[in-house]
Specification:
CATH class: Mainly Alpha
CATH architecture: Up-down Bundle
Number of helices: 12
Oligomer: single chain
CATH superfamily: Rhodopsin 7-helix transmembrane proteins
CATH topology: Rhopdopsin 7-helix transmembrane proteins
Number of strands: 3
Distance between the termini: 66 Å
Strand content: under 5%
C-alpha cells in the first residue's frame, strides 16, 4: 500500500498558477522582475567582491554582511527563475520532487538569514556597548563559529521540514495559486494525514523566529540605552548610523513575514500573499545590498574605483 501511494505521489504534478489571473500583466511583470533580479544578483555579488578586495572592510561586521549577501543571492536565484518562467510559458506544471527541492533550498536560505540577522545584531551590541573588548568577543574564530551556526541551523531546519513533507502522499494533480513552493501549499495538496508535518513546522519555525527575534530585540534595547547615555551628540549619531542599515533590513524581513503569516486579514487575500511572496523572494534580496551600501562611504568609494578601473581598461 505504501509503495502504491509513493508511485501516485511521484506521478502527481503541481500547477503553479502564479499571476495567470492577470494575463495582461504577465509581460510587464516579467520585465519588472527580471530587472529586479538582475539588480539583486549584481548588488549581492558586487557587495561580496567589494568586501573581499577592500582591506578597510575586513572587519566582523562586513564578514557577516558578506555572508548575508551570499544568502540573499542564493535565495533570489532559487525562487526567481521559476517565477520568470511561469510568466512566459503556457505549461506551468512542476513535479513534486522539483517543488520540494526548491522548498528545501529556499528554507535553508530563509532560516539562515534569520540567524544571520540575529548574529549581526549581536555584533552591533558588542561594538556599541562593549567597544573596549570588541576584538576579544568578536574574534575571527568566533565570527566563523557564528556563521557556521547560522548555516548549520538553516540546513538542519530544512532537512526536518523537507522530511516532514517527503512522508506525505499526493494523490492527484493540484493547482497551486502561487509561484513558489511553500510549506502550506504542500499540506493543502496532500491526501494523507498532515498532523505530524504541522507539528514539525510549528516547532522549527517558532524556535527559529522566537529565538532570533528575542536576540535582536534584546540587543537593540541595550544598544538604545547605551546610545542615550552617550554625552556626545556626534557619538550618538555615529552609533545610531552603524545600526540604521541593519534595523532597516530586520524591519523589512520580519515585517513581511509578520504581515503574511500573523495577520488573518492578509492571509485571506491571495493577491496580497503573492505580492508578499514576491517581496521576500525578489525585493528584499535586491534592497539589502542597497540598504547597506548607500550609507557606507567605504563601500561607495570601492564601487566607484571598480567602475573607474573598468572604464579605463576598456
Amino acid at each position: 500500500m505504501m509503495s502504491t501511494e509513493k508511485n501516485q505521489s511521484t506521478a502527481v504534478m503541481f500547477i503553479l498558477l502564479g499571476f495567470s489571473d492577470y494575463p495582461e500583466l504577465e509581460v510587464p511583470l516579467f520585465l519588472l522582475f527580471i530587472t529586479m533580479y538582475a539588480v539583486a544578483v549584481l548588488g549581492n555579488v558586487g557587495m561580496i567582491v567589494i568586501i573581499r578586495i577592500n582591506p578597510k572592510l575586513h572587519t566582523p561586521m562586513y564578514f557577516f554582511l558578506k555572508h548575508l549577501s551570499f544568502v540573499d543571492f542564493c535565495y533570489s536565484t532559487i525562487a526567481t527563475p521559476k517565477l520568470l518562467e511561469n510568466l512566459v510559458v503556457e505549461d506551468k506544471s512542476v513535479s513534486i520532487k522539483a517543488c520540494m527541492t526548491q522548498f528545501s533550498f529556499g528554507t535553508t536560505c530563509v532560516i539562515t538569514e534569520m540567524v544571520m540577522l540575529a548574529v549581526m545584531a549581536y555584533d552591533r551590541f558588542v561594538a556599541i556597548c562593549y567597544p573596549l573588548i570588541y576584538t576579544v568577543f568578536i574574534s575571527p574564530t568566533r565570527c566563523v563559529l557564528l556563521v557556521t551556526v547560522a548555516y548549520a541551523w538553516g540546513i538542519i531546519s530544512s532537512i526536518l521540514l523537507t522530511y516532514s513533507l517527503v512522508i506525505l502522499s499526493f494523490c492527484e494533480t493540484k493547482f497551486i495559486d502561487n509561484f513558489v513552493c511553500e510549506y502550506a501549499l504542500f499540506l493543502s495538496a496532500s491526501c494523507s494525514d498532515t498532523h505530524f508535518s504541522e507539528i514539525m513546522l510549528s516547532i522549527v519555525i517558532n524556535i527559529s523566529e522566537f529565538c532570533t527575534l528575542i536576540i535582536i530585540l534584546t540587543t537593540y534595547i541595550f544598544i538604545f540605552v547605551t546610545i542615550l547615555k552617550m554625552h556626545s551628540a556626534s557619538g550618538r549619531y555615529k552609533a545610531f548610523s552603524t545600526c540604521a542599515s541593519h534595523m532597516t533590513a530586520v524591519t523589512l524581513f520580519y515585517g513581511t513575514i509578520f504581515l503574511l503569516y500573523c495577520i488573518p486579514s492578509f492571509q485571506s487575500s491571495k493577491l496580497v500573499m503573492k505580492v508578499g511572496s514576491v517581496f521576500y523572494t525578489v525585493v528584499i534580496p535586491m534592497l539589502n545590498p542597497l540598504i547597506y551600501s548607500l550609507r557606507n562611504n567605504d563601500v561607495k568609494e570601492t564601487f566607484w574605483k571598480l567602475v573607474h578601473l573598468n572604464i579605463i581598461s576598456q
